[in-house]
Amino acid sequence: MADSTLPGPALAASRAALNAAIADQQAAENGGESPTTPAIPEPNSTRESPEPGEIQEVDMQAQAEGIRTVFNDPTNFNVKHPLYSPWTLWFDSPSTKGRNLPQTPISAFPQTPLPQTPGANAALGWMEDIKRVITFDSVEEFWGLYNNIVAPSMLPQKANYYLFKEGIIPAWEDDANKQGGKWSIQLPKDKNRGNVDKMWLYTMLAAIGETFDPYLTAGEEESPQSLITGVIVSVRPQFYRLSIWTRLAPALSGNEDEAEVKLRERVETIGKHFKVSVLSYPEPQKLAGPLATEVEFMSHKDSEKKGKSAKKLTVL
Ligand code: MGP
C-alpha cells in the first residue's frame, strides 16, 4: 500500500507524542528518577481535575469548532490524529505456537488470516506462529493498543512484538524487506529490565511518527517513501533486542557510486537517530560488552546466512 502524506495536524500530533516522550525521558534522567507516566494523555486514563487556580491551556479555535482532541478531552474526543500510514502489530511467543488464538497476553484481539502481501507465500513457515494482533492508523488507536498489551519486560522468554507498516509482513521474504536490513541493539536483561519498556515505546513512537527517516516531510521527491518497514522487540533468555528494519541495505562493498553513498548516509542517519535520540545514549558511548552489542546494521541477506562473513555498520 502507498504511504499517504501526513496532514499538518497529524504530523504535529505524532511529533508531539515523540517529543513529549523524549522530554519525559530526559526529565527523568536529569531528575534521576524513572519515568512512570505516559508522555501524552492516554484515551483510557483518568486525569485528575485541575487544582483551583491552576492555569489550563485552552485551544479556543478547536473549542469554537466543537473539535475535541485527545489532548483537550481524553475521554470524549471526537477527532483522531491520523498517522502517515497504518501500522500492524504482530506477536509471537512460545505460548502462542501452534494455536489459532493467542491465550496470553493479547487474547482480546481476534485473529485474521495472513494477508496476501508480495512474498508472503515464501514466508509461510516462518509466519506460522506469528499472530496478527491489530492494525491502527491514528495516534489515539496507538495509545489504546499500547494500554492494553503486556509490556516487553513482562513477556515470556522467546516472545517478540513486531510493529510493521500495514501490507508488509515481518519476514525477510516480503518484497518490501527482501533487499533490506536491520539496525539492532542487544541489551543484557539484568541491567535493562527497567529500561526496555520505555525504549520499545520510544522506538514505536519514532516509527509511527516517521522520525527515523523523515523523507516523507522533506519534499525532495515526487512520492517519497520512508526506508522503514517495521520495528521489533525480542525477549531472549539473557537479553532484549530492539530492531529497526529498512527497505534497502547499502552493499558495503567499497562501491563509491553516488546512489550507494547516499543510501549508506541515509541508513547511517537512521542508526544515529536510534542510538542518540530514541535510546538516549551519547553518540561516542561504547555499548558492547557481555551480552550487549553496539547499535549495528546488517542486511537481511547476511542475517539469512547467519551472519557468516557479514559486513556490518556500527554507530560508534
Ligand atoms: P531470530 O528470532 O530473529 O534470531 O531468528 P535470534 O533471536 O538470534 O534466534 P532465536 O533462535 O534465539 O530466536 C531466529 C531464526 O528464525 C533465524 O535464524 C532464521 O532461521 C529464522 N528467521 C528469522 N527471521 C527474521 C526470519 C524471516 O524473516 N524469514 C524466515 N524464513 N526465517 C526467519
From TrEMBL:
Family membership noted in the UniProt record: Belongs to the eukaryotic initiation factor 4E family.
GO cellular component: eukaryotic translation initiation factor 4F complex
Domain of life the protein comes from: Eukaryota
GO molecular function: RNA 7-methylguanosine cap binding; translation initiation factor activity
SUPFAM superfamilies tied to this protein: eIF4e-like
Protein name in the entry: Eukaryotic translation initiation factor 4E
Matching Gene3D superfamilies: RNA Cap, Translation Initiation Factor Eif4e
Gene Ontology biological process: regulation of translation
